[in-house]
Write a structure and sequence with these properties.
single chain; about 475 residues; alpha/beta; Pantoate--beta-alanine Ligase, Chain: A,domain 2; Rossmann fold; 3-stranded antiparallel beta sheet; about 35% helix
């Protein structure tokens, strides 16, 4: 082979190998990008999985929280970032929440910086996840048993109570004015409880079915205001029907003179009791309308409100409360039970075994149980010995405390959640009683002032909202 021929063949082969190398390099670029892209897509998949885990955890936290909390978005963010810390791969670009009735829709997005795809101008990849939490709510029946005694009339306490109780109603009802799965009742109490004068409209003779006949006489210028007396023990601590507990006696504060020597006195049995409402000349002291300060309805509080889903009714009744009379907390508590009960005389409550509904009673007082030998209450005068034979003083108070304690235990025994609040109260005895009365330590609240009372009612509203959520 000539030298020229050899050089020509060598040159051709060199050029051929160079072309093959270039072609091989060009062919490898898509392969490299494919492999690099797979790595970038894998990084994006990792970010998406972490996003989903963090969003799911945050969604469970939000789903078990009061839906009306103003800081609900903060709750979502706090739980989300606790599970998706800033050092994680991927930069979070969005965290959103939308609530539509019982459905909470959540979404989150993040950008992932690319490594290989950046070569071809794709600098980042966006990923997004979503979650939907369905809050399945039960029905809720709750009764507020609220102290309306004379001591509530000082220091702005009654106004504070009205504001706090109204806030609970507003939280539970939210924007709804008549929700299907919520019913609330109201029981103002003092030394007796006012059951109203038309509490069983389905009966042909509504009062005769539950109140003893012949006691609803026209008392001069006034008439029976709706207060009833306590039944004999143990039915004063139970939700027993008429068949077992008997009918209720109407509350009638006796017509009594200020002194036995006063001209025109008709009844000198109870001396130094200033409730003279019938004069010997046939005239009467005024006893026409609530609030009653004299006459047979003296110190009878505002009528109770049976369970209702009407928000405006409850707010109006709360606003109409007034302060009067002595303190018999147990009578308020047992009528709170009777209001939330499915049994007569109030039948708005669902049966206890209805698993689709929850029942709760909230009891508030600003003072100890009290008696006074010259004050007539649902247990009459202390001297009459209706409280286990006691005739006043510390023994009568102890009996009232015992009746309240038994009522609370009886309510809890049928599945009612009991919440208790002591308000601006220094008595450790009553605080202990209320702490034991509550269904759990978390369901007792001590509110030393007007401001803390608002917080107690809000906390209870939040607990009640959670009580309605199936976990």
């Amino acid at each position: 082979m000539s030298r020229a021929h050899f050089l020509a063949r060598f040159s051709f082969r060199s050029r051929h190998r160079g072309s093959v190398a270039v072609m091989a390099m060009l062919a490898a670029i898509p392969l490299v990008l494919a492999i690099g892209g797979a790595i970038d897509f894998g990084r994006a998949a990792i970010v998406k999985a972490r996003l989903q885990t963090a969003l799911d955890a945050a969604g469970l936290a939000v789903g078990s929280t009061d839906p009306y909390r103003p800081d609900l978005m903060d709750v979502l963010s706090r739980y989300f970032y606790a599970n998706y810390t800033p050092d994680k791969l991927g930069n979070v670009t969005g965290l959103n929440m939308r609530i539509d009735e019982n459905v909470i829709a959540l979404s989150a997005s993040a950008d992932v910086q690319t490594v290989f795809l950046d070569i071809v101008g794709t600098h980042s990849m966006s990923v997004g996840v979503s979650a939907e939490i369905v809050r399945e709510t039960t029905g809720l029946e709750v009764v507020m048993v609220l102290d309306n005694t004379g001591s509530m009339g000082s220091g702005g306490k009654l106004d504070a109570l009205k504001g706090a109780a109204s806030s609970l109603v507003n939280i539970l009802f939210g924007d709804s004015t008549a929700p299907d799965l919520l019913k609330v009742g109201l029981v103002p109490f003092a030394g007796a409880v006012n059951v109203g004068t038309d509490f069983d409209v389905d009966q042909l003779n509504p009062f005769d079915a539950f109140v003893k006949a012949g006691q609803r006489t026209d008392w001069g210028r006034g008439a029976w205001g709706g207060c009833v007396e306590a039944r004999a023990y143990p039915n004063d601590t139970l939700d027993t029907g008429v068949a077992l507990g008997g009918k209720w006696d109407t509350f009638l504060w006796p017509d009594s003179c200020y002194s036995s020597g006063e001209a025109g006195c008709l009844d000198t049995t109870h001396i130094n009791i200033n409730n003279w409402w019938y004069r010997s000349d046939g005239s009467y002291h005024d006893d026409l309308s609530f609030p009653w300060t004299s006459g047979p309805n003296r110190e009878c509080p505002r009528p109770l409100t049976p369970l209702t889903n009407q928000k405006v009714t409850l707010l109006n009744e709360i606003d109409a409360m007034t302060a009067t009379g002595y303190t018999h907390i147990g009578l308020g508590a047992v009528w709170g039970w009777r209001v939330v009960s499915p049994d007569a005389p109030f039948t708005e409550g669902v049966p206890y075994d209805n698993e689709a509904w929850r029942k709760a009673v909230i009891i508030l007082t600003d003072g100890d149980n009290t008696t006074n030998n010259s004050v007539y209450t649902g247990y009459g005068y202390p001297s009459e010995g209706r409280l286990a034979g006691t005739t006043g003083g510390w023994a009568s108070k102890q009996q009232l405390d015992q009746r309240l304690s038994e009522t609370c235990e009886n309510m809890k025994a049928v599945g009612i959640q009991v919440y208790t609040i002591t308000f601006n109260l220094g008595s450790e005895t009553t605080k202990t009683l209320f702490r034991q009365c509550a269904s759990s330590p978390e369901q007792y609240f001590d509110s030393p002032d007007n401001l803390s009372l608002q917080g107690a009612f809000r906390a209870i509203a939040n607990q009640l909202s959670n009580l309605r959520v199936f976990r």
